[in-house]
Structures are given as structure tokens and as C-alpha cells.
Predict the structure of Pirin.
Amino acid sequence: MAVSRAIRQVFLAIEQSEGAGARVRRSIGTAKLRNFTPFLMLDHFTIGKGAGFPDHPHRGQETITYLLSGGVDHEDFAGNKGTIGPGDLQFMTAGRGIMHAEMPHENLDGSPNVGMQLWVDLPRELKFCEPRYRDLRANEIPIAEVDDGRVTVKVISGQSHGIDSVRDLAYTPVWFLDITIRPGGRIKQTLPIGWNAFAYTLEGSTRFWSDDVSKNVEQFNNVVFQQDGDYVEASIPDNAEKPSRFILVAGQPLDQKVVQYGPFVMNSQEEVYQAMVDYQSAKNGFEKARGWESEIGKRMAA
């Protein structure tokens, strides 16, 4: 018999400064929830004019950037450039080394650029793989309609109610679903057995269920589920004033030590130290970092 996942903890993501002038609500990667394997960090970011994430390195992890509104430009030291818009995603595998910049658009109406960035650990054997990028456009994402249309699921990665995602976009197996529940709607979303899972509430108020026990969660909270169980259940009442929206993410745990120093995520202190040396001396994957400056990063000085 299928069993629902109980809630392990719920906590509010407090807004803080990050990068150059950006504001983020960080929930994974804080004292409340650190190294929730395979997840390293989750930021709900807001970046406007004059803000952003100028030139910086990475090694040993993947990032999933999901833009909710506005636009973000990307540029790296290997000559890769791109832009994602509302509803688009970029999956970046840093592997052995990447240096890049992520900078917001200046929107005509002055509105900020808002999105989610999730850091996912790489398995030990892939820490030194070649960097890669994979974009997923909003119009490519399949949609599952649940509960007579009262629930909509954007199947970014994984499966929901008979709908499969377009492709796997990360090396570490991850399911990533964007779920909207309208008044009176209810969903039971199956997740892979034994994977770690969480929900981050973006809009409205969502009621999460485990058996006959429920908990009402407001926006900007991270809901961490127990590893045991087959599915997550959520609903909102008939008289709800507005829909609720949350991302539901599950990932396959990695049985390995995590040692993180800023943008470098490795399995030992020695490997982190080596990453710093490699970056500073432009070798072992960081050869193109020497003297490189992104064009988009120069906006910060303009």
C-alpha cells in the first residue's frame, strides 16, 4: 500500500544580500538545512538593475537555474553565451572547472528578474568531468493536468501522472516539478523511493498532508520531507482566495563526504585546496581563466 511522506521540517527562507546587489532567500545551504544530499544550496533570487553575479569560478557541482520572471544573460570563459527568459531553465555542469558571469536584464518596466537556483552535488567519479550546458525553454516543458484541471504540473524533470519530462538534464538524478493548485485542488505526486525531497512555496498557502494530518504552509518556506514514503500530497481549500504554487524537487542521495568552500564543492579539504590553487594558477581546467573578463560582467562598472 502506498504511503505518504511525512514532513521532517518547515522553515522560512530569510531574505539576505548575495553577489553584487542581489537579494536572495536561501533555504538549503543554511544552518537550518545544510548538505541535504544531493542538494547543496537553494536560492530564490531577485536581481535588478546594477546587480548580478559577475565573473566567478565553480568546480565539482551542477547548477539548475529556473527563471520565474525577467531575463538573465550568461557568459563563460569557453565562449559560451546565452539568455534565459520567463519559464526557461539552464542546467550547468561545472565539472573540473568553469568561470562565468550571470547578469540580469534591465527590463523596460523596471521590474526585477526573479528565479530559483539550485546547486546539486556531482558524484565523486564525475567531479572532474568536462563542463557542459543544457537549456530548457518554457515552451518545451510538458504539462500534466490533475484533478479535473484544478492542478497543473510543469514536468521539468521526472514524471507526473503519466507525463514524462523531455530529457534528463543533470548528471545526478533529479526530479523538478513546478506545481500550481487552484481552489479545491488536490494532488498526490509520486516520488522515487529513497530519494531526498523538498517543496519550496512560491505563492499562496499550501496544505501538505501525511495520512490524516496536515500542515498549512505560507509562501517562501522550505518543506523538507522524510525519506520514507511513496508520494507527497498537497491541496488548497475550495474557498482559497488565490492559487498556491510550489516547486517539488527530489534527488538521489550521494554516499560521499561534502567539503565546500564557496564555489568549490569537493570530497576532501585537500581537493578544495587544490581547486583554489588550480584557479589561482589557471591550470587543470582553469587554463582559460587567466586574464579573462566577461563582457556582461562589465555592466557592473558601467
Summary: Helices lie at 269-281.
